[in-house]
Amino acid sequence: MPTHHRAEDLRSHVATVLRAAGSSQKEAATVAENLVEANLRGHDSHGVGMLPRYVEAVLEGGLKPNSNVNIRMDTGTLLNLDGQRGYGQVIGEQSMQLGMDRAKQHGSCIMTLGNTHHLGRIGHFAEMAVAQGLVSLHFVNVLSRPVVAPFGGADGRYGTNPCCIGIPLVGRPPFLLDFATSRVAQGKMRVAYNEGQQVSPGTLIDEHGRPTTDPAVVVVPQSNGLFGALMAFGEHKGYGLAVACELLGGALTGGGTWHKPTDPGVRTVLNGMLTILIDPTKLATQVSFEEEALAFVDWLQAGPAAPGFDAVQIAGEPERVTRAQRDMEGIQIDNATWREIVAAGKKFNVEMPHQ
């Protein structure tokens, strides 16, 4: 049966493994905090279940502990950054701090980041921006095993390519939209597979291009050694946005796009990200922006709730509710995922409690 873990215990366990894998104490704490925060907000696909893959990426040499962001070009309002294959949670924060400083100085900043290991939950970076009163837009590509089929296609050709938008609302929690351009994140299929669950129809195709509800087709190689694929959300619309994320987050950043056969043995996940930061205080529309944003949100939420819903919500609210609940009740982790985490620790002689 799944068990619940306190957030502080998970942070300690994960940080211990990361330090044993070569990270400094500060880096290990940052990555552990980020992973646990993803679990707290209900995004288990980007939470502590990623630790085994990170450990394997370190061992194969694709993830470089204690790397820092490298500034390749800086004109003030334009930044071109290289993550040097460091932990994306660390590189992402370093990059955002550079971009936010430029945006507050100049009013805006366009920032490209390439060659960084898995950035994790992109919403974290938007949260950093809105906390400073900045609007934040992110377009991300994924260089790993291609797990999403193009609209009209029958095999995986690109990654889950997330898009994220954060908008501050004066006196209120922010609007925070953070989603994969696939119907669900790949990590959610890993969670479903570990829990022995089927997924909703219309989410997956198998290795032959046929519809299936079995998450195993995108988690483990099938009988012919091939994988199935996730479907894009919104048919051609989600597919189009995914391509935009690949072109902006991969080609424009210099990090590269995916266009090669799959190597299922490689565990490294590289991300590229285009970030656009805007300081509303530098625009002549600040007052109307604040007033109109609140007026529109109030208008949305004053409407009647549809059957099966308690209220009309905006992006970010479900995560805040989940966080409060999990902070109090603990984070549920299935037995298979926990065994993988324990096994990852043992690779560096770190013993963790069994469930």
Strand content: 15-25%
CATH architecture of the largest domain: 2-Layer Sandwich
Q: Largest sheet, if any?
A: 7 strands, mixed
CATH class wording of the largest domain: Alpha Beta
Report the mean per-residue pLDDT as an integer.
Answer: 94
What overall geometry do the principal axes of the alpha carbons give?
globular
The CATH homologous superfamily of the largest domain is named Malate/L-lactate/L-sulpholactate dehydrogenase, NADPH binding domain
Radius of gyration: 20 Å
- Determine the N-to-C terminus distance: 9 Å
Give the % helix. 25-40%
* Strand order across the largest sheet: 2-3-4-12-5-7-8
Total count of domains: 3
What is the overall number of helices?
A: 10
The CATH topology of the largest domain corresponds to Ribosomal Protein S8, Chain: A, domain 1
Low-confidence stretches: none
Question: What is the secondary structure topology, with strand pairs?
Answer:
Blueprint: E1 3-5, H1 7-20, H2 25-40, H3 51-60, E2 70-74, E3 78-82, H4 88-106, E4 108-117, H5 123-131, E5 135-143, E6 148-149, E7 163-169, E8 172-179, H6 186-194, E9 204-205, E10 211-212, E11 229-231, H7 236-252, E12 270-278, H8 286-302, H9 317-329, E13 331-333, H10 335-346
Parallel strand pairs: 3-4, 6-11
Antiparallel strand pairs: 1-13, 2-3, 4-12, 5-7, 5-12, 7-8, 9-10, 9-11
Helix pairs in contact: 1-2, 3-10
